């Protein structure tokens, strides 16, 4: 590889490797919800230089506004389905719409992002010798037949359904990661992320936590999709970012589940939001979408043992942390 053959004089190529000081980190999808929180945390370390590549499909420059113009930060408008030439030491590969309404909006683009986008980032990792972390998803388990889900479970996924562009896309992305690892010796890390929530979620992206909080603030009924007994396990974004960085810095390829094992039915979630944010609000039942997984809860034994990680923030503590950000963006201040 080019780093090994490089002359001993400093060259812009793999600059950081010559001085062993700064770490140059690419975050794809860094203008999105989880990506922007990850960038905040990475930028806190003065030895890190961060490059974000994002096409702003579901992300926004606003999420990164405090870093724009910072000497250790660079933002590139780039679609990962096109090749990217940059010189970096680590790649956090997050680029991909995560909310069902956005990933179903243009399913062909979603699968291209997962497959061609991941292939390009692996080609980049191979060329520059970078370590690459993929944010995969609990959706690789589909509508799971074992509960809670362990990493060794192969999943129960519909290959031709409306969610397949996302879940099969991520499954191929994981396959590509392992094939580049086995065939080309690339250092890989795979996180299987479970439902994550927190400030900066898109207000109208249709995900359940952002929907309920926005509805509670607007004093609109909380729309529980039938039957309402389906479960999810919600991880606060700061815990998620902590888990991703530990995985990147550790020695395990993964896949490793990163999520909060606290499991709630959608009815329980609605009741919590009602109690904490707007006790007056109504809870109603509405129609569901196809292929909705009935239950989901991570087994995080591996994350605990291998990364020394477990989430710290309980759902009832995390929901109020999101409220202020949503109130500001919706222009609805708290009454009292
Ligand atoms: P998000 O939609 O807020 O962020 C995704 C970012 O990727 C956005 O900024 C978007 O503009 C960008 N993007 C999309 N397609 C792109 C492309 N072709 N080229 C360049 N940029 C592109 O979503 P998020 O919740 O921050 O999710 C981040 C990652 O975590 C995704 O890979 C997602 O699959 C994964 N994940 C998230 C959750 C969750 O609950 N939020 C759960 C499981 C997995
Ligand atoms: N690639 C990229 N940036 C790089 C190197 C490669 O985006 O710095 C892309 C490249 O365009 C290719 C993909 O990554 O489509 C896979 O690259 P690889 O070298 O593994 O395969 P090949 O180019 O031999 O098909
Ligand atoms: N859901 C709901 N009301 C909403 C939006 C979603 O009850 O307004 C339910 C949905 O049916 C699913 C769960 O919440 O069972 C999680 O959906 P989300 O889209 O947030 O994430 P994912 O299905 O990807 O886990």
Structure description:
The protein has eleven helices and 13 strands. By secondary structure, it is of the alpha/beta class. The strands form four sheets. The chain has a seven-stranded parallel beta sheet with strand order 3-2-1-4-5-6-11, sandwiched between helices. A two-stranded parallel ribbon has the order 7-10. The chain has a two-stranded parallel ribbon with strand order 8-13. The chain is globular, with a radius of gyration of 20 Å. 38% of the residues lie in helices and 17% in strands. The chain binds nicotinamide-adenine-dinucleotide (NAD) and uridine-5'-diphosphate (UDP) (2 copies). The site of one uridine-5'-diphosphate (UDP) has 9 residues, from helix 5.
**Biggest sheet strand line-up:** 3-2-1-4-5-6-11
- Strand content range: 15-25%
Gyration radius from CA atoms, angstroms: 20 Å
SSE succession: HHEHEEEHHEHEEHEEEHEEHEHH
Total strands: 13
Separation, N- and C-terminal Cα atoms: 62 Å
Outline the biggest β-sheet.
7 strands, parallel
Named once each, the bound ligands are: nicotinamide-adenine-dinucleotide, uridine-5'-diphosphate
Number of helices: 11
Helix content: 25-40%
Mean pLDDT: 93
Report low-confidence residues grouped into runs of 5 or more. Answer: 1-13
Structural class designation:
alpha/beta
Shape: globular
GO molecular function, one term: NAD+ binding
Pathway: Nucleotide-sugar biosynthesis; UDP-alpha-D-xylose biosynthesis; UDP-alpha-D-xylose from UDP-alpha-D-glucuronate: step 1/1
Subcellular location: Cytoplasm
EC number: 4.1.1.35
